[in-house]
Structure to design on (931 residues):
């Protein structure tokens, strides 16, 4: 009863095209945003930021980026891990070369550098399609990880081959390094995510987004009505890589602090983010977050349940976790191939009719 | 000169192994349009099961081998019954993701059942250098690799006959061309899928056994199997000869590059070289080695 | 409907007068490997007419359209568009030159709504850059709304208001064909290529579609080239007809003349071929 739109008339195209055309949605979203920005920062502690909130925000950003490429433009990529590594190493080099640089600039520049690399690896997409392209993006994954392992310049010739984030501030608050405060990290990531989620939404409902979807749904027809395939695909690769690069940069500098490329940015990350996108819902901004939340929270829950609840050995629990993740993924794809976003949508549609569905 | 020939030969042998894994991919892709990412893990799983049965029960290897085939057929049945049946007419990317899920499941089950430590798979396959080649041509060749090549040749011959001459083979090709048309002439998709996945499981077992005998059964096996992917894009997803030739090209190319290019860029390029080679090739010929020229229609 | 008619636009973008040659195909041949799809075909399309291309299945009609809008590149021959001769042209260049197209098998963007599909057709006319699009505010928003208004006019014209927000994958076939026409019209083309716009439609839908085609031609002055199998429709709609058979042109002229031609009758009724 509360969720109905009778009486909400739209008198302009602008209000008809709004992100949340239904008033109740707008209130809930604003309430949620206010809660995340104004309430949560006062209650976060180390455990919550490190185990839950930061991975959620950072992987949410990465999933958003990949969703632009896979969900909106229809180009499958398995190179996410490699592109995140580009973001991480770019920000490491920027942080160590220009100690005075504002961290916001560092993260944005890292995204920009990743966008350039991503577009380069997107070039084959003009000639290669579908799974052939997916396999081709694996080249990016393996090649990039190799590059960062092989050439000392990228990790400043450190003995361990690791990169470690130095202490850097943002507006006078310490953001990176071991003594940074949880709420600073949280707010920094949250702000970036919120801003770029809005930008993503704006892009996909504008001309560029429509061109991406046109290429995704039927590339030949798109070309015949004037969409330029190369430009459109490359822009999707660039924007997507920009987001993924920022996520990689944050993962390294704010969240982990120290990174060894093969472990953190291996092919498993590529799959993880792809799963987030698929389980969340291809071609849905909110789906990216739902998928990220699901796959960040699930392992924590499983681990707590099996190790602490059932007293299982950690190694055994790890194996069971892999098995369960696999089963859940299969289950999800069978039950709702369009992801959590579709479930969400169906719930909303039912709610609009409730309690008189006919 | 001998060194070059040795390099090429060992590349060819490694290529045969890649081809075997790629073969499993091709079979499933041809019959169902599914890009089966789990094929690599299937190799691992089959080899793990094989080694595990021998280790736990002490049975002689032929019996264990037959039992493992049984397990792979069961896996095929379970995949059809619990997964594929519910996903008829889904988009390819969904099916692809499902096979990644499947890879996780197989990996988890394999680890839980048989443990994750490295297993030795000793079934009396020939090992050591071939004396004949060493004496007559002064070239070092592993016996096991020659044996693997022979097995692969036999397997390919067997599959070719199976596909071309038998009734099931004809049904398989019909399904590969058009699911609905095949259904309408009375072919049971479900049976076909079980058969195809069983055959792919068998191929995985053979590949896994050969790899395992060479370097032990361990998780890295499924990563080696990823190398079958560039082989696939080189040879085309639907071509069995493509899988073979592609495997050989990748095997040789990789070895040559490692020796003649590797030192200039700091080595360890085998992780990505195959992909770059395949990528470069695709840019020139998007349809792969044996594919027909793609004519797009509207 | 009437609000959509703007006399200024009827003159066309090029300022060409009615009756001038808009597009001329000269001695075009196209083959795939050893298969000849089109052999040495020449014809022209004049501004403002409805030009039908007919012929039995496999005669090369669709290939001809593909050549015109740059999707296939002929091995021989030239195409002159507004008097300018070109050999090769990318499809999106053809689109920006004012050639729009519908397809034999509906080629809509299935995951998008009717509105978004038609808006895609406006893409070439939208100029605001990437950064404005990121903000979706100010000039970008104004532009978006301006084009939305244009699209709504087309939606009104084709009477598809009710399905504005429906994903086109869920629409019945007849409506999909109409949305496809809407998308092509959104490009405000000078030449509209229609590939079997009435295939698979029932009588009522055919009548509707014929009406829309004539309206487009007469109200907007859009030149139309269409492929159609329904001879009744072709004879009623078109000003001139070109007939293809086995990749060759066998007749060209006004409908009555073509209908009476012995070659055409042979092609349709099946007289043994000499090759």
């Amino acid at each position: 009863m509360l969720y109905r739109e009778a009486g909400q008339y739209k008198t302009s195209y602008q209000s008809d095209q709004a992100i949340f055309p239904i008033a109740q949605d707008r209130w809930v979203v604003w309430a949620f945003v206010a809660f995340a920005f104004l309430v949560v920062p006062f209650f976060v502690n180390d455990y919550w930021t490190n185990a839950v909130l930061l991975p959620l925000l950072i992987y949410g950003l990465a999933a958003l980026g990949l969703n632009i490429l896979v969900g909106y433009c229809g180009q499958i990529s398995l190179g996410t891990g490699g592109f995140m590594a580009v973001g991480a190493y770019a920000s490491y080099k920027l942080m160590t070369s220009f100690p005075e640089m504002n961290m916001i600039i560092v993260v944005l520049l890292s995204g920009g550098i990743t966008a350039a690399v991503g577009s380069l690896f997107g070039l084959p997409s003009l000639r290669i399609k579908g799974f052939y392209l997916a396999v081709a993006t694996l080249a990016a994954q393996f090649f990039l990880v190799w590059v960062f392992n092989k050439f000392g310049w990228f990790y400043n010739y450190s003995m361990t081959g690791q990169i470690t984030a130095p202490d850097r501030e943002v507006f006078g608050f310490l953001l990176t390094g071991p003594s940074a405060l949880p709420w600073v990290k949280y707010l920094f990531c949250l702000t970036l995510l919120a801003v770029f989620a809005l930008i993503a939404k704006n892009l996909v409902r504008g001309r560029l987004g429509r061109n991406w979807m046109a290429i995704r749904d039927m590339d030949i027809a798109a070309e015949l009505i004037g969409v330029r395939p190369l430009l459109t695909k490359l822009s999707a690769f660039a924007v997507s890589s920009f987001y993924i690069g920022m996520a990689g940069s944050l993962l390294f500098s704010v969240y982990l602090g120290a990174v060894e490329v093969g472990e953190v940015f291996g092919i498993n990350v590529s799959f993880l983010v792809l799963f987030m996108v698929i389980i969340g819902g291809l071609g849905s901004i909110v789906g990216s977050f739902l998928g990220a939340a699901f796959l960040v929270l699930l392992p924590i829950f499983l681990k707590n349940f099996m190790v602490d609840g059932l007293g299982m050995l950690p190694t055994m629990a790890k194996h069971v976790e892999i098995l369960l993740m696999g089963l859940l993924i299969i289950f999800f794809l069978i039950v709702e191939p369009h992801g959590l976003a579709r479930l969400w949508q169906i719930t909303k549609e039912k709610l609009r009719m409730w309690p008189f569905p006919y | 000169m001998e060194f070059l020939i040795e390099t090429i030969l060992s590349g060819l042998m490694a290529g045969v192994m890649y081809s075997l894994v790629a073969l499993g991919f091709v079979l499933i892709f041809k019959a169902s349009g599914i890009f089966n990412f789990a094929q690599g893990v299937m190799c691992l799983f089959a080899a793990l099961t094989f080694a595990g049965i021998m280790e736990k029960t002490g049975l002689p290897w032929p019996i264990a081998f037959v039992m493992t085939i049984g397990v792979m057929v069961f896996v095929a049945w379970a995949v059809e019954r619990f997964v594929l049946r519910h996903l008829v007419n889904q988009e390819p990317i969904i099916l692809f993701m499902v096979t990644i899920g499947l890879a996780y499941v197989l990996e988890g089950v394999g680890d839980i059942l048989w443990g994750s430590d490295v297993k030795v798979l000793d079934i009396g396959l020939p090992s050591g250098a071939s004396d004949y080649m060493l004496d007559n041509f002064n070239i070092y060749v592993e016996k096991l690799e020659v044996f693997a090549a022979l097995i692969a040749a036999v397997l390919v011959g067997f599959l070719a006959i199976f596909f071309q001459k038998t009734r099931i083979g004809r049904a398989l090709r019909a399904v590969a061309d058009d699911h609905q048309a095949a259904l309408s002439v009375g072919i049971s998709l479900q049976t076909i899928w079980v058969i195809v996945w069983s055959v792919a499981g068998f191929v995985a077992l053979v590949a896994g056994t050969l790899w395992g005998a060479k370097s032990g059964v361990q998780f890295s096996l499924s990563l080696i199997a990823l190398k079958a992917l560039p082989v696939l894009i080189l040879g085309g997803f639907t071509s069995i000869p493509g899988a073979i030739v592609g495997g050989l090209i990748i095997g040789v190319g990789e070895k040559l590059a490692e020796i003649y290019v590797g030192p200039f860029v700091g080595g360890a390029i085998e992780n990505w070289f195959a992909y770059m080679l395949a990528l470069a090739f695709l840019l020139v010929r998007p349809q792969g080695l044996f594919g027909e020229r793609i004519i797009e229609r509207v | 409907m009437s609000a959509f008619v703007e006399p200024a636009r009827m003159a066309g973008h090029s300022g060409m007068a009615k009756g001038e040659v808009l597009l001329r195909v000269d001695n075009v041949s196209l083959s795939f490997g050893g298969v000849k799809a089109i052999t040495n075909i020449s014809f022209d399309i004049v501004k403002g007419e409805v030009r039908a291309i007919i012929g039995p299945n496999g005669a090369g009609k669709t290939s001809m359209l593909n050549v015109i809008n740059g999707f296939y590149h002929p091995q021989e021959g030239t195409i002159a568009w507004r008097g300018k001769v070109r050999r090769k042209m990318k499809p999106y260049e053809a689109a920006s030159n004012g050639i729009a197209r519908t397809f034999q098998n509906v080629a809509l963007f299935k995951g998008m709504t009717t509105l978004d599909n038609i808006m895609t057709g406006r893409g070439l006319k939208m100029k605001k850059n990437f950064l404005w699009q990121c903000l979706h505010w100010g000039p970008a928003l104004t532009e978006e709304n301006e084009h939305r208004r244009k699209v709504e006019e087309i939606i009104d014209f084709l009477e598809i208001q009710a399905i504005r927000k429906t994903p086109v994958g869920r629409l019945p076939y007849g409506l999909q064909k109409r949305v496809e026409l809407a998308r092509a019209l959104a490009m405000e083309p000078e030449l509209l290529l229609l590939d079997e716009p009435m295939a698979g439609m029932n009588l009522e839908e055919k009548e509707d579609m014929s009406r829309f085609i004539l309206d487009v031609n007469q109200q907007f002055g859009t030149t139309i080239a269409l492929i159609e199998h329904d001879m009744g429709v072709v004879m009623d709609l078109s000003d001139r007809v070109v007939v293809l058979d086995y990749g060759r042109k066998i007749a060209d002229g006004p409908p009555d003349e073509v209908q009476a031609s012995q070659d055409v009758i042979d092609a349709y009724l099946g007289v043994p071929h000499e090759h």
Q: What stands out?
A: The radius of gyration of chain B is 20 Å. Chain B has a mean pLDDT of 83.
